[in-house]
Amino acid sequence: MATSGAPRVAQNLLEVWMETATHANAATTQTLVLDCRIIRYTGPDLDEYSPEFLELLRRQREEGYSLASIRWEGDRPEIVFQRTEPL
Fold this sequence. Notes:
By secondary structure, the protein is an alpha+beta fold. The chain has a single domain (3-18, 30-86), classed as Dodecin subunit-like (2-Layer Sandwich), CATH 3.30.1660. The protein has 2 helices and 3 strands. The protein has helices at residues 6-20, 51-62, and strands at residues 31-40, 66-73, 76-86. The protein has a 3-stranded antiparallel beta sheet. A hairpin with a 2-residue loop joins β2 and β3 (76-86). The radius of gyration is 13 Å and the shape is globular. It starts with 5 loop residues before the first helix and ends with a strand.
């Protein structure tokens, strides 16, 4: 995938995450980060509907992690997940 499309794909991925994840009450504004995971995605070209990416999201969510950010390193993203608890 060309790097120039990275911001659009990252935005689409965040939207897919928001649509599929179960979220805590939106009124909770302060959280404590307990743990972070940085995953360098090495699968096929990243696409917001790729089965590989959706499986990665599902596994992380099952382990209590939520998507924190996506950073691009060259043409591959680093996906940051975090586990939090309300303060």
